[in-house]
Amino acid sequence: MRLAALRECPSAFGETAEQAAALHPADWEARIARSCAPGRQILAVAADRDNGEFVGMLGGCIDSERDRPELLVPVPDGALWAMVWGAYVRPSGRGRGLADQLHAAVHRWAADEARVEWIGLDVVETNTRTVAFYRRNGYASTALLRPYAKDPTLTETVMVRPLRRDPESP
After folding, report:
1. CB neighbours of 104 closer than 8 A, spacing ≥ 6?
2. Residues 6+ apart with CB under 8 A from 2
3. DSSP H helical ranges for the chain
4. What's the CA gap between 91 and 88, in Å, rounded?
5. How far apart are CA 148 and CA 2, in angstroms?
6. pLDDT tens digit sequence for 9-37
7. How confident is the model at residue 152 (pLDDT cuts 50, 70, 90)?
8. CA distance 131 to 49
9. Distance (Å, rounded) from C-alpha 119 to C-alpha 6?
10. Residue 140: in which H helix or E strand, if any?
11. pTM over 0.85, yes/no
């Protein structure tokens, strides 16, 4: 599914399909294990109930687990935050609310397990459909802009949203 995402939406991700395809199976296993570290990272996936095919994914990681040190989000000093990464839903899964469900799962993880106060992400500004999706899910654009690593003619905007923890959580 990751390779499909990279091929269909190359400007939405920090790596290319060629880079990902060149990874050894052990590297993929290490990525999956890292993405499921309790309280540190999450990889939420959605599967088609009829055929079991994965149709959607979304990851999240706390700030200390990000893979590029320049990926920072503007939050109040001392605030704990997490970053959303790898959002993708296959065309066959679109229009069914899967992206909203994946975001809800990552937001619950961020608030209740990772116990962060903010969640943020980078998105290429010209990806207006995705920007609108994030706005609909409570994110606001910040003044922080950065050149897109794969194409410096494009600009990424940083979006954030505050999280409220469940008062019943320990």
Report:
1. none
2. 20, 57, 86, 88
3. 2-8, 17-21, 25-35, 98-108, 128-136
4. 9
5. 19
6. 777 777 888 888 898 989 888 877 776 77
7. confident
8. 29
9. 23
10. strand 140-148
11. no
The residue assigned the tokens 């599914």 is 1
Which residue, among 85, 87, 82, has the nearest Cα to 119 in the 3D structure?
Answer: 82
Residue whose token pair is 């200390």: 64
Residues 6+ apart with CB under 8 A from 158: 73, 74, 120, 121, 122, 141, 142, 144, 145, 146
pLDDT digits (tens, 9 = 90+) for 126-148: 989 899 999 999 999 998 898 88
User: Which residue type occupies 127?
Assistant: N
What value does the CA radius of gyration of the chain take, rounded to a whole number of Å? 16
Structure tokens at 72: 């920072």
- Side chain identity, residue 1: M
Asked if 161 and 137 touch (Cβ cutoff 8 Å), the reply is yes
Half-sphere exposure of 23 (CA within 13 A, CB side): 16
